[in-house]
Design goal:
Shape: globular
Mean pLDDT: 92
InterPro entries: ICL/PEPM (IPR039556), Isocitrate_lyase (IPR006254), Pyrv/PenolPyrv_kinase-like_dom (IPR015813), Pyrv_kinase-like_dom_sf (IPR040442)
Strand order of the largest sheet: 12-6-4-3-2-1-14-13
Low-confidence stretches: 222-226
Keywords: Lyase, Magnesium, Metal-binding
Radius of gyration: 28 Å
Largest sheet: 8 strands, parallel
GO biological process, one term: carboxylic acid metabolic process
Number of strands: 14
Number of helices: 19
GO molecular function, one term: isocitrate lyase activity
Catalytic activity: D-threo-isocitrate = glyoxylate + succinate
């Protein structure tokens, strides 16, 4: 007996047990509604998706070609349409996630209006977006199953038993649109207790994976901005512990923590670390400070000094009261951050780099893997990188090193359209195309994400529509550029009433009121023009 038929049988038993008063309740309608509502709470989603992500991590450890991917989505509808597209074109959501970008929450979801990525937005807007994303993904499940139920009814009405059997099999094997979300908690929005409280909200909303960074929370900057300030390892590890406690308290024992280091681009620290003995974590953190050796007699008013290896050292303190690291120590600090985080509760690491360069990432990962052999990265394929220029310059440099003639190219101007059809540009594009595959194989990257792609796609598509519609194209700008393409490409939103849930509502009305139901999907619904 199929799962669908089992659900009907169970509902029949419950209705029969309740007695005559429930005689108007259809067991099949109950079964359909239950199948359309597979996940009843965000916590159920977090537990389910944590299991998905852990299986994917184990598969990657066995075979680095099976990496995972995601796109950042700033609204539930955008996340829903992404997953609908994946299922339509690729037939499965396997290894495809969602990314919740703190940058986009700040820029697009704050009641203050657009903000920079500096943790100034309401922290509850992060968990609210997680809940919104999963509301839309669950609605995508309900819609897709409702279409199958409608097709099942049509097959029965036509007496087509083979089609009926086929559709029931599709219902039984339906793949949910609900996938893991990697959720950005920035630097924790305060102290460790604040981090714990927000992590709980995020997990209760459905997050199975939380990404946290080692910046000072009240000085937090976007990973691609200047002025980043890191914290000593003890402070960061306390927040990793806080997230783990939140997962454990809520019963998501396999929840995933991604520890992000911004040390590659962060030249400042707010604190000198506490150290109890030479070579401990605090001492290692302080060893990267930019210091000068002084004598006790040379101390000035308010000077801060540390004693290290028998020497009295004065760290360089800026007018901002921040302390400066020595130039050129970024990679060493990144490696130490990653090893320390993985040894103290983090499951994966994130190294925020200034460019997409496999060799640079691999160099650090190789050092990390000398200590943590199965170290895995989440990597930001950032829109802040000029991918075209970066990869054309990488090819230019490789050709130069190999002795190939590059005299026809100006390295500083390789972004120019004049180079688009050259062999150099074609090789660069091929490197971009295979970047994720190659980086996963060579540099331990388990998950590739783009933080804010849908921010850019929304702007680009809106610009293309506006420039034609408000000029001489008028309605043709919409019809040609949007609606005609929706129809021809099979984009489900062309039937926007269906996408917003009108047919699901009609099904419910029929369950509730039978033939007396006033349904919206009759012959006069203009959506019928898009059959």
């Amino acid at each position: 007996m199929s799962q669908y038929q089992n659900e009907i049988k169970q509902a029949q038993a419950e209705i029969k047990q309740a007695g005559e008063g429930w005689s108007a309740i259809s067991a099949e309608a109950v079964a359909r509604m239950r199948l359309q509502n597979q996940f009843q709470t965000g916590l159920e989603i977090a537990k389910y998706t944590a299991g998905v992500m852990r299986r994917d991590m184990a598969e990657y450890d066995a075979d680095a070609s099976v990496y995972t991917q995601s796109l950042g989505c700033w609204h539930g509808f955008i996340g829903q349409q992404k997953l609908i597209s994946i299922k339509k074109h690729l037939k499965t959501t396997n290894k495809r996630y969602l990314y919740l970008s703190g940058w986009m929450v700040a820029a697009l979801r704050s009641e203050f209006g657009p903000l920079p990525d500096q943790s100034m937005h309401e922290k509850t807007s992060v968990s609210a977006l997680i809940a919104e994303l999963y509301t839309f993904l669950r609605q995508a499940d309900a819609r897709e199953l409702d279409l199958l139920f409608t097709a099942l009814d049509a097959a029965r009405e036509a007496g087509d038993s083979a089609k009926e059997t086929e559709i029931i099999a599709q219902i039984d094997n339906h793949e949910t649109h609900v996938v893991p979300i990697i959720a950005d908690i920035d630097a924790g929005f305060g102290n460790a207790e604040a981090t714990y409280l927000l992590a709980k909200q995020m997990i209760e909303a459905g997050a199975c994976c939380i990404q946290i960074e080692n910046q000072v929370s009240d000085e937090k900057q976007c990973g691609h901005q200047d002025g980043k300030v890191t914290v000593p390892h003890a402070d960061f590890l306390a927040k990793i512990n806080a997230v783990r406690y939140a997962f454990m308290e809520l019963g998501v024992t396999d929840g995933v923590i991604v520890a992000r280091t911004d040390s590659l681009g962060a030249g400042l620290t707010k604190q000198i670390a506490v150290t109890n003995q030479p070579g401990d974590l605090g001492d290692l953190y302080n060893s990267y400070l930019d210091c000068e050796e002084i004598s006790a007699e040379a101390l000035g008013n308010g000077d801060v000094v540390i004693k290290r290896e028998g020497k009295l050292l004065r760290p360089k303190r800026l007018p901002s009261n921040l302390f400066q690291f020595r130039a050129g120590t970024g990679e060493d600090r990144c490696v130490l951050d990653c090893i320390t985080s993985l040894q103290n509760g983090a499951d994966m690491i994130w190294i925020e780099t200034e460019k997409p360069h496999i060799g640079q990432i691999k160099g650090m990962v190789d050092r990390i893997r000398e200590v943590i052999p199965n170290a895995k990265l989440v990597y930001n394929n950032s829109p802040s990188f000029n991918w075209t220029l970066n990869f054309r310059q990488q090819v230019f440099d490789a050709w130069s090193e190999a002795g190939k003639d590059v005299s026809a190219f100006d390295r500083a101007k390789l972004m120019s359209v004049d180079y688009d059809n050259t062999d150099l540009a074609k090789e660069a594009d091929e490197r971009i195309r295979t970047f994720q595959r190659d980086a996963s194989a060579q540099a331990g990257i388990f998950h590739h994400l783009i933080t804010l792609p849908t921010y850019h796609t929304a702007a680009l598509s809106t610009d293309n529509l506006a420039k034609g519609y408000f000029a001489d194209q008028g309605m043709l700008a919409y019809v040609k550029g949007v609606q005609r393409e929706e129809i021809r490409q099979g984009i489900a939103t062309v039937k926007h009433q269906n996408m917003s849930g009108s047919d699901i509502g009609d099904s419910h009305k029929e369950y509730f009121a039978g033939e007396a139901a006033l349904k919206a999907s009759g012959k006069d619904n203009t959506m019928n023009q898009f059959h």
